[in-house]
């Protein structure tokens, strides 16, 4: 039995890559900016024991842009893995009971967001979130905090805060969470 890939069922940020609708980009960029601002202010509180506006102004655009890039890296990992899973299971007329088939089916399920309920699909989704979190940590540490006058320990703490608090947990939202988005375009007339 072959499965159809429904690309319109993807969620943030993979979903945005396919729609490229300006409103989704504006909402996502604004939401990421707000979350990154809160985390950067919290990081300045933890690192400096006070809110530091100068630290915020110097680093917000960097962490915001790099965080968004890291989310896109995680989404690319999801998309690529899902495409590999789809091409693998598409070769079979009926499902088979093997580790490899179940893993590839789980990866395919994350791509079309049909039923992320198996251990394989949840594991693959977690691995995508971890890929993005590691990318956030590495980019923030080496490209922002390492050269911003912080000690190594402070840079690691700030980078870890970003990796943990801004990881793309939205990967786990069900597609029904985005019905408002589709309804908005119907209302606007797109």
At a glance:
Helix content is 71%, strand content 0%.
Provide structural commentary.
- The protein has 190 residues and is mostly helical.
- It has one domain (7-173).
- Helix content is 71%, strand content 0%.
- The chain is built from seven helices and no strands.
- The protein has helices spanning 14-19, 22-48, 53-89, 99-112, 119-145, 152-165, 179-188.
- Helix 2 (22-48) runs antiparallel to helix 6 (152-165) and helix 3 packs across helix 4 (99-112).
- The chain starts with 13 loop residues before the first helix and ends with a helix.
- The relative contact order is 0.16.
Sum up the structure in keywords.
about 190 residues, mainly alpha, 7 helices, disordered N terminus
Strand and helix layout:
Layout (H helix, E strand, L loop, with lengths): L13 H6 L2 H27 L4 H37 L9 H14 L6 H27 L6 H14 L13 H10 L2
Helix pairs in contact: 2-3, 2-6, 3-4, 3-5, 4-5, 5-6
Number of E strands: 0
Chain-averaged pLDDT: 81
Q: What spatial form do the alpha-carbon principal axes imply?
A: globular
Largest sheet: none
Can you tell me the number of structural domains? 1
Low-pLDDT runs of 5+ residues are 1-16
Q: How much of the residues is beta strand, in percent?
A: under 5%
Distance between the termini: 35 Å
Which class do the helix and strand fractions yield? mainly alpha
């Amino acid at each position: 039995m072959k499965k159809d890939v429904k690309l319109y069922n993807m969620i943030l940020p993979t979903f945005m890559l396919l729609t490229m609708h300006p409103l989704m980009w504006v909402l996502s960029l604004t939401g990421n900016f707000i979350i990154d601002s809160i985390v950067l202010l919290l990081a300045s509180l933890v690192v400096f024991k006070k809110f530091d506006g100068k630290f915020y102004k110097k680093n917000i655009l960097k962490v915001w842009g790099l965080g968004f890039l890291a989310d896109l890296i995680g989404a690319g990992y999801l998309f690529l893995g899902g495409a590999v899973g789809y091409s693998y299971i598409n070769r079979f007329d009926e499902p088979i009971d093997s580790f490899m088939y179940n893993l590839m089916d789980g990866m395919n399920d994350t791509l079309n967001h049909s039923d992320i309920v198996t251990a394989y699909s949840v594991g693959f989704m977690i691995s995508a979130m971890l890929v993005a979190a590691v990318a956030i940590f590495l980019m923030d540490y080496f490209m922002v905090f390492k050269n911003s006058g912080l000690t190594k320990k402070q840079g690691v703490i700030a980078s870890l805060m970003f990796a943990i608090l801004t990881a793309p947990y939205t990967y786990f939202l069900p597609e029904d969470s985005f019905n408002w988005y589709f309804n908005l375009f119907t209302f606007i007339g797109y």
